[in-house]
Each structure stands twice: as C-alpha cells, then as structure tokens.
Design a protein that fits this description.
The complex is a heterodimer. By secondary structure, chain A is mostly beta strands. Chain A has two helices and eight strands. Helices cover 35% and strands 17% of the residues of chain B. Classes of the chains: A mainly beta, B alpha/beta. The structure holds zinc ion.
C-alpha cells in the first residue's frame, strides 16, 4: 500500500491540532482531550482550546512487556504529563536519559507505531525534556 | 467530576429484599487448553446447579458476564451460547470490563427480587489462553482509555505502575510491603482447589522477579487465565429450608473517568469508595462488621489501596496492614483467602462471580484449610481497568 499521502497528512496536521482540547464557557475549566460535559461544573457549553504542549511529569513507568505493535520499542517510558495549562494527559517520553517526577517537558510530533510491514505509520504527540 | 448520584434504591428499600446464593460452582482456573468457552460454561453451570441441588431446567434466567470473547475468541452473543449449552431460554449478556461478573450477580439478584425469576444464575466466563502474551497485553489495555492511554503504548501494568509510584511517593509504601501481597495470596491459593498457582513464593523472589512495567514485577501481577464460575440465586422464601446459603445483604456500585490522567488523585479509587459506602449503608453495617474481604488485585497496589478505600486500614497504611499479617487468614481482617486474582489466576469477567463463590463457601464453613474462623459476613469488591468501575457486594450467613 502506498501510504505517503497518509503520512503527508499526518505532517500537515500542525502540532497544535494534536493538542486540541476544550474550555468550559461557564467555569473556564480546561479539558484534554476535548469534553462534551464539563468535569467541574457539569455545563455542556464548551469551546475549542489549543494547549501549549509544555508541562511536567506527574508519574511515569518504563514498559518492558508491551502490547502488540509496541514490542520492538521496549523498553520505553510512558508518563502522565501535567500540562502547564492544567489538565493531565498520557504520552511517551523520548530523547531523555533518566526520567524523574517533576521533570519539565515539551511536546513533539513522533512516530508511535506501524501497522504491519507496509501499513500506516501512526504519529502523535510525545514529550521530551526541555533544555 | 460531578457524576450525578441517581436516587437508586438499596436492597433494604426494595419489596422482595431477601435474595440468597444457594449454590456455586466453577471450573479450575488456569491455562485450560482442552476447554473452549462452551465447555467452560457447561462445566461451571453444572457444578453450580449440583451445589444448589437444582436442575438446570429449574433456572429461569441466566446473566452471563464476559470481557474478551469478541477480541480473543471471535465470538459474540455469549448469551445465545449459554442458552444453547444450558438449555435455558432467558440468557442475558452483562458486558463492561472485568467487574462484569459482579454486575451479573446484581442483575440476577434484581431479577429474583422483582419476582421475574424464581431461580436465577449469574455466570462469568473468560477464555484468554488462546492469545500470545503481547496480544493479551493489547486486549487487556482495552480496559483503559484506548484512544488516549493504550494508543500511546501504555499497558495496564504501566498504568498501575504509575499508581504504585504515586502511592510510594505519597505514603512511603515499600517494595517489601508490595511483595507481601503476593506472598500472602500464593500461600492462601495453596489450599484452593480451583486456583491456578498453588505454590508458595517468598518476598525475596517476588522482589527479584522481572519488571513488567516499573515498578510492577511479574510476581506482583495477576496472570490472565481461563476460567468460569457460576452461582445460583433465589428468594428468601425459596431458600428458607436450605442448609447451605448466603444472603446478599447489601450492594453498591461506583464509576470514575476511564483514563487515569483524568483523575485528581490516583492513590485511591473513587469508584470503589462510592461503591463501598453505598453497600455498607445498604447492609446497615460498618466495615468493622465484616469477617473477611475478597478484593480486586490484578496488581498488588490495587489490593493495598482497596484495603484503604474500604476503610479496613487508614489511607496509606494498606501495605503495612498486609506486611504485619493483619490480612492473613487468622489476622484482623483476612483479605483474599481464596488467593485472589494473583493466586487463582485473573479470569476477568469470572472474577466477580468467583469472589461470591468464595463468600458462599466460607460463610457455610466449607473452605477447609483456608477457612476463616467464625466467618459471618463477607465483602466482595470488584473493579474494572484502573478502577473506573467498581461493585461491592456484601453477603451474610445470618
Ligand atoms: Zn465548567
């Protein structure tokens, strides 16, 4: 299968669009991923909000036994990132030596996995240390 | 998150509030190469009916719980499979995650209490051994948020790894305390004929076993296995003359957001706290009144936090509680006398029913070498994924 168009599509999606969440019009609570129901006040009126993509590591784990599709990547580190804007999200940590709780990180677009030998390459946000 | 608490009625407010377990049966748990999902259902149901002294023809309705048959066995419509195997026309699927077995019990209880069923069966079945390890890990990660957790390569073990890390950071829970969960569970499983892992392990070998996802180790994780478990339920009137029985005296359920990152605090399970508060209130008892508890322990930290969230120990002291032997059979409050998921094997949708079976066996004094002395009241708490769903069932022999 020729996947170059798909991959070009991934690249064209600007980084900010991967971090599109929502903001409550009533209480201003920020949500990632986008929510239809505010988790703080219960309002159903929310609008788009783009996250900056910086934050710090809240918790992490180094995966040694992976799910199918990720076996080739072990060991890799997954973490819950506390975004500077507020909400938390889960992503892999890359380009880092030793990871620690509280470490400052920023988002980057990276390959996650490939569907088989000639399938689609899945891209999404990972985080790397700042500075 | 403001989950709206609907004004659900407790057992004690309901019309035909007396509902009893009068029989329980199971397959062995483990890698059962020679048995498919149909055989598992047949064996457990027949054993449960035999234990209750009823025929399968007497069962009015069956509530069957299953997690992974769509993914693993390419088989949906498990209720029809049940109907075909058991010859019962009214079989209903109870879906959801690995707490679905406990939900099936509630559906069977409701069916009895409403008068719809005279005799109802709750059955939980799982067949996972046909998959490779990475496919099992992948299937199990569907219990988490697939789009925003599993997609990034987060496994259930790694999510529990993060829960463990936070619990250690906040309360100083130690590797040795975490290892004591496995030591106790294995020791209890030795005396459980249905358990997969009937051998002892020592703390040192638990702490030296390979890391699955830091800081979670192989011997701190419950292994996915095959298994099926069934219980038979009926009304108080029908159970009156029976010698072997256990009454469902209270239940509660709770929910939380599915992704761990969506929760304020990951060192306790809000769904479990809600479910246990409702269940205890429903039963009209306090946590000090229970004789023992069967809790959800896919990874050791889940058992430690369950002890805390149920109020058996203070927050942060669950690890110490187990390390001090308070959770042993003969301790202050025995936890998982069956061996739990770790000792018995983790058969997902079958877990909740297996816990109820342990309650039935213990409350009737039939647990042999693992018998809890003077067992009068049993609490079974079951969860799904990383605790996004919880069910607490309380049984009594009085
Ligand atoms: Zn709001």
């Amino acid at each position: 299968m020729n996947v170059s168009n798909v991959v070009m599509g991934w690249r064209r999606i600007r980084k900010g669009n991967f971090l599109l969440g929502s903001k409550c019009r009533k209480c201003s609570k920020l949500h990632f991923p986008a929510a239809r129901l505010c988790k703080k006040c219960g309002s159903r009126e929310l609008e788009d909000y783009r996250f900056k993509g910086t934050g710090k590591i809240y918790a992490y784990s180094e995966v040694r036994t992976a799910s199918s599709g990720f076996e080739k990547h072990v060991p890799y580190t997954v973490a819950i990132i506390e975004l500077d804007d507020g909400p938390k999200m889960t992503a892999q940590i890359v380009e880092s030596g030793k990871v620690h709780v509280g470490m400052k990180v920023e988002s980057c677009l990276r390959k996650y996995y490939v569907d088989g030998d000639s399938g689609i390459i899945h891209y999404w946000i990972k985080f790397r240390p700042v500075g | 998150m403001p989950l709206i608490a609907n004004s659900l009625k407790g057992l004690n407010e309901m019309e035909g509030k007396n509902v009893f377990v009068i029989g329980a049966g199971s397959t062995k748990f483990g890698e059962l190469w020679e048995l498919g999902i149909r055989e598992l259902i047949s064996i457990a149901a027949a054993n449960a009916a035999k234990s209750a002294g009823v025929g399968l023809n007497d069962v009015d309705s069956v509530f069957v719980a299953n997690c992974f048959s769509g993914i693993v066995n390419s088989q949906l419509n498990i209720n029809s499979i049940c109907a075909e195997e058991l010859g019962v026309a009214n079989c209903v699927c109870v879906g959801g995650g690995d707490s679905s077995g406990a939900h099936a019990i509630l559906q069977a209880a409701n069916s009895v209490m409403s008068g719809k069923s005279r005799i109802a069966m709750a059955i939980g079945v799982e067949k996972t051994s046909d998959l490779s390890m990475s496919d099992i890990v992948g299937a199990v990660s569907c219990l988490a948020d697939h789009e925003y957790e599993a997609y990034t390569g987060a496994t259930l073990a790694s999510l529990y790894g993060m829960i463990t890390q936070k619990h250690m950071e906040k309360y100083g829970t130690t590797e040795a305390q975490i290892a004591s969960v496995s030591v106790k569970s294995h020791s209890n499983a030795v005396n459980n004929e249905f358990a997969q892992f009937r051998f002892n392990v020592d703390a040192d070998s638990v702490m030296k076993s390979p890391v699955v996802a830091s800081p979670v180790r192989v011997l701190g994780s419950a292994a996915a296995c095959d298994g099926c478990c069934a219980i038979i339920m009926c009304s108080g009137e029908a159970a009156r003359k029976r010698r072997k029985k256990a009454r469902l005296i209270g239940y509660g359920t709770g929910n939380d957001v599915v992704a761990l990152h969506g929760r304020e605090d990951i060192t306790s399970f809000r769904a479990l706290k809600d479910a246990s508060r409702l269940a205890l209130q429903d039963a009209g008892i306090g946590i000090q009144d229970i004789s023992f508890a069967e809790v959800y322990d896919p990874f050791s930290i889940a058992e430690i936090i369950s002890i805390e969230d149920l109020g058996i120990s203070k927050a942060g002291e669950g690890g110490k509680f187990i390390e001090n032997g308070f959770a042993d059979i003969g301790g202050k409050c025995p936890i998982n006398p069956s061996g739990g998921l770790k000792g018995c094997g983790h058969a997902f949708a079958a877990n909740g029913v297996r816990q109820a079976m342990e309650a039935f066996i213990q409350l009737n004094g039939d647990a042999g070498a693992r018998q809890v002395k003077n067992a009068k009241c049993a609490l079974a708490s079951c969860m799904s994924g990383t605790g996004s769903d919880a069910v607490v069932n309380i049984f009594s022999n009085e």
